[in-house]
Design brief:
The protein is an alpha/beta fold. The protein has 12 helices and 25 strands. The strands form 6 sheets. It has an 8-stranded parallel barrel with strand order 8-9-10-11-12-13-15-17. It starts with a strand and ends with a strand.
Length: about 525
């Protein structure tokens, strides 16, 4: 065993040089420093070289080069683990580009509606460049059918170009993209978002609701117009299903083959309409629709992308036990949402504990061979007890190895329906939610039997290696200039495991021989 005390003096931090994630990276092994050219369009699994007898566990004699990806794609094994192109078990940890994307101009940051594409791309660069410093490696990127097809059969080319530009910029920073068709209470007519108003019945059209509406979520169960709109959609009236999949065809044609896209999410928080028995409705209506959607999206996009599905919003707040239902098809990810009903409103918690909720999702997914990405979780700014709730949620996601995207990250000059969940202020400055959310995690495992825990001072990771390179994310926002005690031990199997610390990429890379059971402890030294 070797121990090393490392003074982290990374050249970047949150808000630093946006190009650092795709440029030169400084790597520290305790005795050597090297420069390695990196970027998301190259691939490397170069192993460290050693001389003489095998090293005891500790720093590498020669730095482990970054493991670079040619594509964001991941596959699923029989247990639902997400495997990257190098066969590593990867965890996706990220954010939703949320509230500001719900109304014109339907993007997560301020931009003039008439801005040229170059100016838009520059603003997108500024927005996404900060995320790798948080340890983020995925974004759930909302899109709106209302924005894409404002009138029947007429698609907005500028909106598609802007969406594609955001995918480009995100991937240039190593961020995978989940393409998410997002709706809330169906459409803007009801103070919601997503579906175009022209999909509503026109004889007579419903009266527009008064907005904003802080209690908008109750409309799923109390508002006759909203419930009727969903009934109409599920019945496929006026060929709405065909129009829905034609809309998806436009989005897939634009970005479906982009190397930065990891998956397609069918429909955010589908409403159950006038169904009185939600569990039965899931079996009789929602699940057949999801199965049809999987087949349609596969026909449009092929088999490489993940397809994500989730539940009605009423499931997300724990009002009743969730009826878990699996669509037919392969490469599926259960993207359930999780909110405490009090915290989401900025009020004290009312009792949704993360651990049993997450266990229910994880157990079902494991039994059904599904991947898991908790698509939304978060809280209203300033809610009492929220930091503890979030830390508990992240602790259990780490323990069960569940991918997740926090709701939300956008710059909201006006709060959508009085919601206040963003990790950013309107001017782009950061909120203290990030002090909890930004933390280490076991991002990629070259091997099996992994475990990870973080106690606010020490990150402890273990796994059985397969000879490849594993990664522990140590986000620069949290660890920039920190003193770290790094301890690597071999519990069983062959010796020779070693590590390389890469401050500019915010990661600790570890290579363990095939069959070596290793443990890594990274402790912040006061």
């Amino acid at each position: 065993m070797r121990r090393a005390l490392v003074l982290w003096t990374a050249a970047i931090g949150c808000g630093g040089d946006p190009s650092s994630s795709a440029g030169a990276s400084e790597t520290t092994t305790g005795t050597e420093t090297t420069t390695a050219t990196t970027g998301p369009t190259s691939s490397s699994t170069t192993a460290p070289t050693t001389t003489g007898a095998p090293l005891l566990p500790g720093e590498c004699e020669s730095p482990i080069e970054p493991v670079l990806l040619t594509s964001a794609r991941v596959g699923l094994d029989a247990e639902g683990r997400m495997l990257d192109e190098h066969g590593r078990d990867v965890l996706l940890r990220g954010v939703n580009t949320g509230g500001r994307s719900k109304w014109a101009p339907f993007v997560p940051f301020p931009i003039d509606a008439e801005a040229e594409q170059a100016a838009f791309a520059a603003e997108a660069e500024q927005f996404f460049a900060r995320l790798p410093g948080w340890g983020v490696n995925v974004v759930r990127l909302l899109f709106s059918w209302e924005a894409l097809e404002p009138t029947p059969g007429q698609y907005d080319a500028r909106y598609l170009d802007r969406y594609a530009a955001m995918v480009d910029v995100a991937w240039s920073h190593g961020l995978r993209v989940v393409v998410d068709f997002h709706q809330d209470i169906y459409t803007s007519t009801f103070c919601g978002d997503g579906f175009p108003p022209w999909t509503l019945p026109q004889d007579p059209p419903p009266e527009p609701h008064t907005c904003p509406d802080a209690d908008w979520g109750l409309k799923y169960v109390l508002d006759g117009d909203v419930r009727a709109a969903f009934d109409r959609f599920w019945a496929g009236e006026d060929d709405l299903h065909a129009k829905f999949f034609a809309m998806w065809g436009q989005m897939i044609a634009k970005v479906g083959d982009h190397p930065g896209v990891v998956g397609l999410e069918i429909l955010n928080e589908p409403g159950s309409g006038t169904a009185g028995d939600v569990a039965a409705w899931k079996h009789e209506t929602l699940n057949p629709f999801h199965t049809e959607a999987v087949a349609q999206l596969r026909a449009l996009a092929g088999d490489e992308l993940l397809i994500l599905f989730n539940n009605p919003g009423t499931d997300a707040v724990g009002f009743q036990p969730i009826e878990h239902v699996r669509p037919e098809g392969s490469g599926l990810v259960y993207a359930a949402h999780m909110y405490d009903p009090g915290l989401v409103k900025g009020l004290p918690a009312v009792g949704l504990m993360p651990e049993p909720f997450l266990d229910s999702i994880a157990d079902f997914a494991a039994a059904e061979g599904l991947g898991v990405l908790i698509g939304e979780f978060g809280y209203g700014h300033g809610a009492t007890g929220a930091e503890e709730w979030l830390a508990r949620a992240l602790d259990h996601m780490d323990a069960r190895r569940l991918s997740a995207t926090l709701w939300e990250c956008s710059q909201n000059e006006v709060a959508w329906n009085e919601e206040d969940l963003s990790v950013l202020e309107a001017d782009g400055s950061e909120r203290d939610t990030l002090d909890v959310f930004v933390r280490p995690y076991l991002r990629a495992v070259a091997g099996t039997d992994s475990a990870f825990a973080w106690d606010q001072k020490t990150a402890t990771a273990s796994w059985t290696g397969d000879g490849g390179i594993s990664e522990i994310a140590l986000p620069t926002r949290r660890f920039d200039a920190a003193s770290l005690d790094i301890e690597l031990t071999t519990q069983a199997g062959p010796e020779g495991a070693c590590w390389t610390l890469d401050p500019s990429r915010g990661e600790l890379r570890v290579q363990a021989p095939d069959g070596a059971q290793v443990e890594v402890r990274v402790t912040v030294v006061d």
